[in-house]
Amino acid sequence: CDVLDKQPLPTIAPENFFQSADDAEAALTAAYDALQATGLYSQDLITVGEMPSDNCTSTNGDVTTLDRINWTPTTSQVGNIWRDSYLGINRANAILKYVPNVSMPTERKNQILGEAYFLRSLHYYNLVRLYGAVPLRLAPTETGDPSVIALPRTSSEAVYAQIVADLNTADGLAPASNPNRITKGAVNALLTKVHLTQRQWGEAVTAANKVINSGTYSLLPSFKGLFPAENKAPETILEVQNQGNADGNNILPDLILPSPPATYSFPKFNIPTAELLQYADTSSFLAGGGRKLNADKRWTLVGRTNAGRDYASFVYSTNSNANDNGPFVYKWPGAPNAFNSPDNTYILRYADVLLMYAEAANEQSGPSADVLAKLNLIRTRAGLEALTTTSPQYASKKAMRDEIDRQRRLELAFEGERWYDLLRYARHNQAEPGAHAVTALNLIQQNLNRSDVNYLLFPLPQAEINNNAQLQQNPGY
Amino acid sequence: LSAAVLLLPAPAASAQLLAVNAVAHQSTTTSPVESVLLKDLLGRWEAEYGVTIFYESDLVGSKRVLPQTGAALLDQKLTQVLPQAELTFKKLRPNYYVLMGQATASPRAAAGTQALADVTVSGRVTSGGEGLPGVTVVVKGTTIGTSTAGDGTFYLNVPEGSTLVFSSIGFQSREVPVTGATSGLTVNLETDAKALSEVVVVGYGTLSRQEVTTSVASVKSEQIERQRVAGFDQALQGQATGVQVVAPSGAPGAGINIQIRGNSSITGGNSPLYVIDGVPVLPTYDRELSVGNQKPNPLNALNPADIESIDILKDGAAAAIYGVRAANGVVVITTKRGRTGKPQVGFNAYYGVQQIRKKLDVLNARQFAEYYNESQINGGAAPGYPDLNDLPPYDTNWQDEVYRSAAIQNYQLNISGGTDKTHYYVGGGYFKQDGIIQNSGFDRFNFKLNFDQQAGTKLRVGTNVNMSRTNTNGSVRSELGLGNSGTVLGTLAQIPTIPVRDANGAYGLNPFSLSDNPVGNLLETSNKALIYQVIGNLYGEYDILKNLKFRSSLGLDFRTQLENEFITRDYPGTSRADASTRGSGRTGTTQQAIWLWENTVTYNPSLGDRHNLQLLAGQSVQESNRFASNASVRGYASNAVPYLSGGTERLGTSSYEEEWGLTSLFARAIYNFDERYLATLSVRRDGTSRFADHFGYFPAVALGWRISKESFFPQSGPVSDLKLRGSFGINGNQELGYTYQTFSSYSVGSNYTGSAGTIQGGIRPDRIGNRDLKWETSNQYNVGVDFGLFNDRLTLSIDAYRKRSNDLLLSVPLPQSTGAQVLDIIQNVGSVENKGLEFALNTVNVEGQNGGFSWNTNLNLSMNRNKVLDLGTLANDQNQQVSRTIINGSSITQVGQPLGVFYGHKVQGIFQSADEIAAAPAQPGNPQPGDIRFVDVNGDNKINNDDRTIIGNPNPKAQGGVTNTFAFKGIDLSVFFQGSFGNDIYNANRQALESLTGPVNQLTTVLDRWTPTNTNTDIPRAVFNDPNGNGRLSSRWIEDGSYVRLKNVTLGYTLPTSLINKVRVSSLRIYVSGQNLITWTDYTGYDPEVSADPFSSTGFGRDFGVYPQSRTYTIGLNASF
Predict the structure, then answer these.
(1) Which chain A residues are within 8 Å of B748, Cβ to Cβ?
(2) Which of B228, B408, B209 is closest to B309 using CA atoms?
């Protein structure tokens, strides 16, 4: 009866959506949009990637629990990453469910599906490496049925298997070229990372090779030129696109830069540790605040003119205000713009792939010319001398591993990779004691005075536990 | 022809509403009336009323009678006419009458008086000074008689020494002896209060009060008209048991919150369903898209003066005939209709002055400067006024600047009347109420037409139409506090050391903070809501058989609403903003059309002598469409073009459309056996578009036993009436706020940069709908007893009820792993109980005879107890499933507690020394002597959020009203008290005005603040920024909200007819009236009748910047021609 059949007029009912190519594109746009969420690449995912690690410290109350590794189920980042990852998963799931039935050109349809598979995999990868076993949701949530809304956890092995399967599917669907968006290169770069995390060296090498051999990517000549990220081809593989007030209000720059250029003065997030600056051999800054020509261009400054824009990786501010004095992260140097920065954020860049390749290949078969070649691309761009087969770093798998670890840290510092690397190293050490010199467990020991393996995983957020009776909290929380 | 005693007054049961000033009339007849054949008359009536009048032909024969024309109903006509033929009648069923011979004829009548010489008597019959047409005037014991003309005059030749009997329906009859020829005889008839209250509208029909087995409160027009208010809803306060009316704001035209028997929904609507002349109207103004924060009240469309009666269906059984919309009770409004007679012209007018009831004492300039300096210094900051002897040259009393005396005026003209076939009522009115705050007010033009036409013998057609134009000027920013330019709190909080305007004419601004200039904010804002509304229907009624009637009606509730706000460039609130952004405009439009088509069949089968059965079956379809849009801009280059086109920056535009539909079937059987055993069964099947599973059944049963009708019951004792009632009914509530709650939805706004570098619009899954959702269901039991004592001079009704509302529509949080954008879903969980007792007492303390002193009292008292029974469960931090609690701002919703209880810290006094602080549970914020010590409720030796507890209950323990009406000669006086007892108010105004923390003016109570030399006080020290949280929500702000209020006193005088007849006025009454005259309360705010968030069942009872109630004095007149 007509009188009783009242469709919601001002909103889009799922049944009325996904009718056209435009609808599919709009849904895909929304799936990308999820990357800009606070819990993901606009703030928390990067913050969690750095704060617990040896790279960063802070006195800001919002992140000190991360810095001190005493997070709890109610720590905001623990909740936000979970929430926003699933938000992204749900948007991708909607595409995967409905777009196959949309009547549109097959080529573009397949590309959209490939992009959705990638995005879902990326979110699950972020989840599984932080929380372990998580509910594996492969269809959009569209009903209040308790058996649908409250899912139990799926083992991390099964989640990884799903990620790998999805990425392999995506590899067949994603386009080779897709400016500012997901490509086959991104799919394989992520696949490399997923395999590396699982210490599946051979598969990691294979996936990385697809990126390397595609011929699409190479390192930007200048390291400093990478920042701020603004679709810096040919090195960039995938960035989160931000356009400031217009769209994608990146919060990070205002959170990490001193004021000015940051809009506000307060204790900043993600401040470089003295240990890191030492590690990068920047001691003379700290000692005298003087100028030093460092061999490593990633950790140097050329001059203090032009509001400090000659820094790379970090900036040293001499503001009299304690909040704005000292070293600060300088990888989002564009425009803080009152929490609405237009600076992009790297999800994947080629240097990362080269380092992952080197790591996997070294683990697979020890130092080799191939490993050296990839590593030297990174070193020489940084202004360091190329290593040779006679370099001490080439002497053993362990020595090479240490060098790769070192270059990863110096190359990717503050980009939200370090803590995940340290977690990976800790797992590696569990399987192969002593493999890595520093792992997450060292930092847990430092902060908690005990080498508590439970802290290799986040707790599940309290808001999730409260509303999903199917879940059990991770041990130790 | 033998004479018979006329047995008057009115018959017990009548199925027609009777107005107070009402006028049953006939115009054509002049005295004396010609007699007609009774047989013919009866035949005519059978046809006209669709009834069977059975008689043995000998009984009627060729008897002639004087046809009586004053009465509208058949029963009344029979009562008047049959005695002339020495007959009586018995109504076996509503449509079946039997005539019988009178058992005894008056012996005196038998003597006959025809032989005596006739004398001429003339005069006028009045009631309250108004000429009363259609009054039967009969010489006692004879058939000689007449009826009065339209102006109440009569002329009759009577035998010498006769006694005249004056009678009319709805009035107490009088006997007046005459000796000799008399002219200018004035006879005043008193209204028969008992007769007037007898008809009860029960939805799709009427019943006599004696037949009612459910709980229905009736309020008559005079109770409504007495109050000088914009809308009838406001006038219901204190008039009926079980009805809680809160005027949440004193703003003219503001929405009124009515609850019947407590709040039963937590997130759904708690407003009753209003049925205006058969058209259901649900006020959803509290939820509608509106600009400028106005919530105009669509019920204001109705002029209270056009209302005949309001019947409130309170219990589940009474309301069940309205099914899925009835859980909050049903308010049935019947408007006035015309009656047979010559045109009656009524003119009513009043004019009054409103004032703020009281002003609050705030600090003057010097006191403020001292306080502010102290607060700054205690906070480690520089004093704001370094030299107290060199203060700014101002001492502004902001309340004096903002509040004013405001006029209230009302003019109402109506013409009504009719012939045997046509009845009409045409009314028009203008009401205007200025606000006691500058630049605020409400006015209404309304037009009313009720028209009924007999078309042929079996068909009746007619219409009810109400058209109105209301305009609300809502420049006042009520209920917004001080931070958002709220007027009321902003006025109290603005500091006295700045001027309204400085020497250059610029608005004074607070130099220490961003708070605005309340006068400037008002004057530089224009915020109008203009509503045109039509509520009405067309009907046709056809008699298929004498006792089988079909009725079809087509109804409409149509409204357009235009809201326009313009804030000038000079608005003080934006004076610190960038010049290019100053000035803003908003426009909102809403159009709603609700169509209704109803068809009913009523059947009154003949079942024999003592069985009375009424059957009703009906069908109804209703559909609504509402469209709303709004747009806003800012950055006006000039104030010259106050329209959206004048703004430079487009801020937002939106539009919205919503539809719902309802299809219903309903049936009801009302049965009584010998008027002793009463039963009503009803069921409604509603199909609603709002839920995927559309259909629900809402049955009800009600039983009654009139013990006083039993043979064993002493007929001569003091108890004249005694009835026991019991009922059970199931009702629904489908008001979820958002109509499409069951649907999942996608929404726009998730944008992202595309391949080409431009931003693309994204559409995301947004809300997860719940297709299993259904309405809230209330099961209500009611038991009641009705007493009548001393021939019903005292009537008392007592009702007890228990209402359980289950399957409450509650927002349940979703696991985040669902990936839903909106992380909650509406589910049917939870249960709330209301139970209570209601007492309604009416007494005739002194019965007025012949215009002598009379005194009536109407008292009502209601006690409701509300309790949350279930809220569902939630896993706690230990992963155990525990009962859910919902903390919503200042209140907590918790199983075992009533809805709305206040939740905060308890105050344990003031710290006097550092030692005391050190020994006390740790309190964050570095407390100092003079700071408040809070109670460590959970005993963990620290003060934090976990120490919050229930600190007050906004639900009244009891509420009621008492109206006393007195009359003596032409003078009438009514005195109405109303009160609420045992409820707490959260005085959030004081949270700003006694905060002692910043550049905000304070109440003079802070003069007693803690200082090292003034330690014996409960007001803490002044300290900038409140490090200890002295101002947090605590028992400090909870006050007893009980009050008793002299709500209305009206003193009227009806001028003697002799005085006014010369100016062709048939009656003239002048009166003075006072509203909100005296209030007895301990509450310290403006008014204990307050609620900043009245439509929330969990957030009511909070006083926060609410527009104060006014005290009103009016003078008025009622005239008829």
Answers:
(1) 12, 26
(2) B209
Question: Which among A11, A89, A467 has CB closest to B745?
Answer: A11
Nearest alpha-carbon partner for A173 in A238, A88, A99, A90: A99
Contacting residues of B for A87, CB less than 8 Å apart: 819-821
Which chain B residues are within 8 Å of A468, Cβ to Cβ? 815, 817, 875
| Same-domain check for residues A23 and A143 | yes
**How many angstroms separate the first and last alpha carbons of chain B?**
39
- All CATH 2.60.40.1120 domain ranges in chain B, comma separated: 36-194
Q: Which of B746, B766, B814 sits opposite A467 (nearest CB)?
A: B814
Helices (H) and strands (E) in chain B, counts: 15, 61
The CATH number, out of the four listed (3.40.50.300, 3.90.1150.10, 3.90.190.10, 2.60.40.1120), of the domain defined by the range B36-194: 2.60.40.1120
Of B687, B768, B817, the CB nearest to A142: B768
Give A28→chain B minimum CA distance, Å.
7
Angle at which helix A369-381 crosses helix A350-365, to 10 degrees, equals 150
Which residue of B624, B663, B752, B771 is the best one to mutate when testing the A interface, meaning the one whose CB has the most A CBs within 10 A?
B752
CA distance B58 to B87: 12
Domain CATH number, residue A114: 1.25.40.390
CATH code 2.170.130.10 region(s) in chain B: 198-342
pLDDT at A12 over 70: yes
Q: Is residue A375 part of a domain?
A: no
Domain that holds residue A292: 244-343
Domain end among A324, A343, A362 = A343
Question: What's the gap in Å between the CA of A456 and the closest CA on chain B?
Answer: 21
Model confidence at A67, pLDDT cuts 50, 70, 90, reads very high
Residues A251 and A142 in one domain: no
More confident residue, B2 or B766: B766
pLDDT at B305 over 60: yes
Q: Report the SS3 class of residue B599.
A: strand
Q: Which residues of B touch A72 (CB under 8 A)?
A: none
Residue A171 has pLDDT above 70, yes or no: yes
- What are φ and ψ of residue A369, in 5° steps? -60, -35
Pairwise CA distance, residues A257 & A329, whole Å: 6
| Residue with the larger pLDDT of the pair B1011 and B479 | B1011
Q: Closest Cα partner for B887 from B949, B820, B952?
A: B949
- Residue A382 belongs to a domain: no
Task: Please tell me the total count of domains within chain A.
Answer: 2
Q: Which CATH architecture has domain B198-342?
A: Beta Complex (2.170)
A143, A276: one domain? no
Say whether A10 and B657 touch across the interface (CB within 8 A).
yes
B791 pLDDT above the threshold of 90: no
The answer to the question of residue A182 being in a domain is no
Q: Give strand pairing partners of B934.
A: B907
Residue A207 resides in a domain: no
Q: How many CB pairs under 8 A join A and B?
A: 212
Q: Which of A5, A7, A11 to mutate to test the interface with B (most CBs of B within 10 A)?
A: A11
In this structure, are A38 and A148 located in the same domain? Answer: yes
B760: closest chain A residue by CA: A29
Residue-averaged pLDDT of chain A = 90
Lowest mean pLDDT among B29-43, B317-331, B418-432, B907-921: B29-43
Backbone angles phi, psi at A124, to 5 degrees: -65, -35
How confident is the model over B501-552, as pLDDT tens digits? Answer: 999 989 998 888 877 888 998 899 898 889 999 999 999 999 998 889 999 9
Q: A462 and A331 in one domain?
A: no
Complex ipTM: 0.91
Given A343, A368, A403, the domain boundary residue is A343
Q: Are B755 and A180 inside 8 Å of each other by CB?
A: yes
The model's pLDDT over B310-328, given as tens digits with 9 standing for 90+, comes to 999 999 999 999 999 999 9
Spatial CA neighbour of B523 closest among B482, B496, B487: B487
Closest alpha carbon within chain A to B741? A8
Nearest Cα residue in chain A from B764 = A30
Which of B817, B828, B877 to mutate: most A Cβ within 10 Å?
Answer: B817
